Amino acid sequence: MLAIIDYDAGNLRSVAKALEKLGETPVITRNPAEILSADHIILPGVGSFGDAMNRLHQYGLVDVIRKASASHIPFLGICLGLQLLFASSEETPGVEGLGICSGKILRIPDTEGLKIPHMGWNSLSYHREPGENPHGRLFAGIPEDSYVYFVHSYYLKADDPVIVTATTEYGTHIHASIEQGNVFGCQFHPEKSSSTGLAILKNFLSIRKEEF
Q1: Which residues lie across from 41 on neighbouring strands?
Q2: Which of 20, 135, 165, 208 could make an SS bond with 139 (beta carbons 3.0 to 4.6 A apart)?
Q3: How far apart are CA 204 and CA 136, in angstroms?
Q4: For this structure, is 79 an active site residue?
Q5: For residue 138, which of 92, 106, 182 has the smallest C-alpha distance?
Q6: Per residue in 149-197, pLDDT tens?
Q7: Is residue 189 annotated as a catalytic residue, yes or no?
Q8: Cβ(71)–Cβ(34) under 8 Å?
Q9: Active-site residue, selected from the candidate residues 40, 72, 79, 96
Q10: Residue 191 a catalytic site member
Q11: Active-site entry in 127, 144, 189, 210
């Protein structure tokens, strides 16, 4: 089963539709048993860090997500879902995030000629040392400099560059994707990134919990 965590995030249906194009039948759920028995889990998200964490607490999902991320289940955070994996965000100081990964969520700096929020297509640069799978599993078979779609005002600066698999530039250097064990994240929206985004989602679905 493929579980999409339901905490009233705005892009739930668009993520589900993208997965349906790949022949999947995702289950949108906030049921802990369904989430923890899934083969793959996706945490989507658009909106405010603080509001999102409040909803996750309201629906009793914080401990469920932490438990899922500590298991062997492939887990993908998208946009705000990526940011929630970290401990805090400049958007809502004092609100504690999930703390699964280590890094800072910062506001994109004001830059002449660039609008905030950042809404549009940016190319990805891969960030891995040469090796058997140098660009991370989400990007297998996807050329560097491929374009994906972003909608955000805040961005990730990971503490450990080893977990960063892709970056982009928009007024600053943005850590656009991460891979930490079974936990993956995209600051961009693969569900809105045309054939490249579908290929990224397909790569995620090809990852098995037996690998971890």
Answers
A1: 3, 75
A2: 135
A3: 10
A4: yes
A5: 182
A6: 999 999 999 999 999 999 999 999 999 999 999 999 999 999 999 999 9
A7: yes
A8: no
A9: 79
A10: yes
A11: 189
